[in-house]
Amino acid sequence: MTTRPRWEHIRGVLILLHILAVLLMALPAPEGAQRREAWNDPTVTAEFEAWSERLNHVGYETTPDDLKTDLFTLAQDFTEVRKTVLSPARPYARYLGTQQSWRMFVAPHRFPTRLHVELKQAEGEWETVSIYQDPDYSWKADLFEQDRFRSALFRYGWKSYSGARKLFNQWLAREAAVDFPDATHIRTRWYKVQTPTPEMVLAGEEFEGKFVLGQTLSLAPYRESP
């Protein structure tokens, strides 16, 4: 009777441990849902309204606010359990470089934002120099439309990314100070508007939006002294 070499048994155990680690790391992570202020965004609010309506149709009575409270508590509890369960697998995933740094999309963004960049001349009016994906206002468009930068612009349009947005605006000010020597100030704003319904698209209609998250910076500090 022949027996398998010891290494084959060890290899089998290692393969099973690897599969277990992959399965554990694949557990859904509601870590981004820990910022409760982000739940007040119109896109998120619309999702809660839609899901509370669906639940009411199947006999589970709830309201959007109650659903928010229940899911926020559930997300916190699940995140703590997930951290404990994953603690043995994290060093292994970090060593192999197989960590997932971004989350899957859970819903369409119904209230997207669009970057507007404006400059002001001395004693002049504001002049638009860049609107995201508008060929008529294309300053920095070659950079803004790159895949990785598009992802960054998406985040900067959320209120909760105030720190990253501030750094982005400061970088824009440095660039504008060089490209527009006669400008005195730069202003960034994000136009937020609900996506139209299919019927509105066919009729050529759209919702009225508004500018949010505006910031104005003087260009003087970003210019080198002569």
Summarize this, please?
The protein has 226 residues and is α+β, with helices and mostly antiparallel strands.
Describe the protein in words.
The structure is a single chain. The chain has 226 residues and is an alpha+beta fold. The chain has 2 domains: 6-96, no CATH class; 113-222, no CATH class. The chain has helices spanning 6-25, 42-57, 64-86, 90-96, 141-144, 147-156, 162-179, 198-203, and strands at residues 113-121, 126-131, 183-192, 210-218. The chain has a 4-stranded antiparallel sheet with strand order 2-1-3-4, with helices on one face. A hairpin with a 4-residue loop joins β1 and β2. The N and C termini lie far apart (89 Å).
Helix content: 40-55%
Query: In percent terms, what proportion of residues is strand?
Result: 15-25%
Distance between the termini: 89 Å
Average pLDDT confidence is 87
Q: Report strand order across the widest sheet.
A: 2-1-3-4
How many whole angstroms does the radius of gyration measure?
25 Å
pLDDT < 50 runs, ≥5 residues: none
Number of domains: 2
Largest sheet: 4 strands, antiparallel
Number of E-state strands: 4
